[in-house]
Recover the amino acids of this structure.
């Protein structure tokens, strides 16, 4: 019966999606038609097979920028594919009353601040963005900006529940870590090929461009994968996007991947996968140097050193491991690129604009622009909303929140992430299994790091997805320990995880 249903579902879904694509393509162009077809197909699959939809979200996430810009100008509708993959899935999963009630009991301390943040956001959307819409002058669209800003601020919070339902047992957890490991290996390998193509002249880079494109990342310099790119060896400028839309997204992917890959090394029972974890960590380190992302160059090695100290067993081998790690990292970096140039760039940037001074200046500017308890409108400092109207570039996250939703909203958000950090801490600390506990520790450190990070990881893919998703995973860990299978964990991993 299930096979017959699937046989009917596939042609019907493809037929509807193709029809929708053709109709919209005739009206708005081939890009809109292709995007519409993919969105309809994604929604149908996600609604009928919610777990498959969430797995597809994790797979699509690191390649979304490459897919979008391979179409041409990167039609905006392609950015909605992420929503099409997880929103229908969450709607279906929330119909499971038992799972929803159990999850709400776990996050009960989080709910009051979540409701306050939701209320402040909706009030701002109605009374700030709504009033601006009545007074707007084309091409500014304040209400659409507000809706997009609301999506960035709160749209991925329900992924905690999605992850809680997706990871049913330790087989699913193992499948998740292995899937993420494969994605990291593929993305970093493509990023490395991108770098080699630029160095060898197969891609022209930014040198031949004119104006500001010589100094800033541009789609005109796009190479192989990803979006905006900067490569000008004459000026010693390099900012690679990897497989993402922009270089800063790639930098934060490398940072988040360092936590995930290291957690995989601690949990996986198979030597081959643990070895692949080390290969992934090595590639992350290499790309942190090659990509020209100063924040990745500073944070990735620091993160790995910190996790080694924090999670390795208290033996006399730890100092030796740390020494070998540092020497090996320096050797790899010096044989692939001039590390001195990257460090000089990092130091020059630090001296030109020290982070603490930069953050204080951002807050001072925002406070001068602040009037009343509400902000200047949702999305008004969200980078992805700039195509819809006038936005401000604010590069520190909590200053951005203050500008958009005011002091009450910022306080509610801070309290919310603080409670979430406490809940995830308690969850991982309650685990007795050593490997599971150490994995939970790595993910909790990631959650803590992002929660109070004053830059913008929570408004940038993929961190804005990974943060809420892996918070849900950590909250599920105590339950997974109770359900731990006694045999056949590795062999049954794939079959159980993809079972619909």
């Amino acid at each position: 019966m299930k096979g017959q249903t699937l046989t009917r579902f596939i042609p019907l879904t493809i037929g509807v999606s193709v029809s929708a694509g053709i109709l919209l393509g005739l009206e708005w162009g081939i890009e809109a038609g292709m995007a519409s077809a993919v969105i309809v197909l994604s929604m149908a699959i996600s609604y009928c097979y919610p777990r498959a939809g969430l797995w597809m979200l994790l797979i699509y996430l690191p390649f979304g920028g490459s897919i979008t810009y391979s179409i041409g100008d990167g039609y905006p509708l392609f950015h909605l594919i992420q929503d099409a993959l997880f929103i229908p899935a969450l709607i279906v999963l929330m119909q499971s009353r038992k799972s929803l009630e159990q999850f709400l009991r776990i996050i009960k301390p989080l709910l009051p601040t979540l409701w306050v943040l939701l209320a402040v956001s909706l009030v701002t959307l109605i009374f700030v963005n709504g009033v601006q819409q009545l007074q707007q002058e084309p091409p500014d669209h304040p209400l659409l900006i507000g809706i997009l800003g609301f999506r960035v601020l709160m749209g991925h919070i329900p992924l905690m529940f999605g992850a809680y339902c997706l990871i049913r047992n330790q087989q699913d957890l193992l499948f998740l870590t292995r899937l993420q490991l494969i994605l990291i290996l593929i993305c970093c390998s493509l990023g490395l090929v991108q770098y080699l193509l630029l160095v060898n002249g197969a891609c022209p880079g930014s040198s031949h461009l004119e104006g500001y494109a010589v100094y800033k990342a541009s789609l005109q310099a796009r190479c192989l994968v990803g979006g905006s790119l900067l490569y000008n060896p004459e000026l010693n400028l390099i900012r690679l996007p990897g497989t993402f839309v922009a270089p800063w997204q790639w930098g934060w992917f490398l940072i988040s991947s360092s936590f995930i890959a290291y957690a995989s090394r601690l949990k996986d029972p198979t030597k081959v996968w643990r070895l692949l974890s080390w290969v992934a960590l090595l590639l992350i380190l290499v790309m942190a140097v090659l990509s020209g992302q100063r924040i990745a160059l500073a944070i990735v090695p620091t993160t790995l050193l910190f996790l080694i100290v924090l999670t390795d067993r208290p033996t006399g081998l730890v100092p030796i491991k740390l020494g070998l790690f540092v020497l090996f990292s320096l050797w790899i970096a010096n044989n692939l690129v001039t590390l001195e140039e990257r460090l000089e760039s990092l130091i020059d940037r630090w001296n030109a604009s020290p982070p603490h001074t930069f953050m204080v200046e951002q807050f001072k500017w925002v406070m001068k622009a602040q009037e009343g308890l509400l902000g200047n409108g949702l999305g008004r400092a969200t980078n992805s909303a700039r195509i819809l109207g006038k936005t401000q570039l604010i590069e520190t996250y909590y200053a951005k929140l203050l500008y958009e939703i005011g002091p009450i909203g910022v306080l509610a958000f801070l309290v919310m992430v603080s409670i979430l950090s406490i809940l995830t801490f308690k969850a991982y600390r309650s685990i007795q299994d050593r490997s599971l506990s150490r994995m939970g520790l790595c993910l909790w450190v990631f959650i803590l790091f992002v929660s109070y990070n004053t830059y913008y990881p929570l408004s940038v893919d993929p961190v804005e997805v990974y943060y809420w998703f892996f918070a849900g995973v950590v909250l599920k860990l105590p339950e997974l320990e109770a359900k731990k299978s006694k045999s056949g964990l590795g062999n049954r991993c794939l079959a159980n995880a993809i079972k619909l």
Summary: The CA atoms of residues 116 and 412 lie 6 Å apart. DSSP finds 20 helices and two strands in the chain. The mean pLDDT is 83. The longest helix spans residues 397-429.
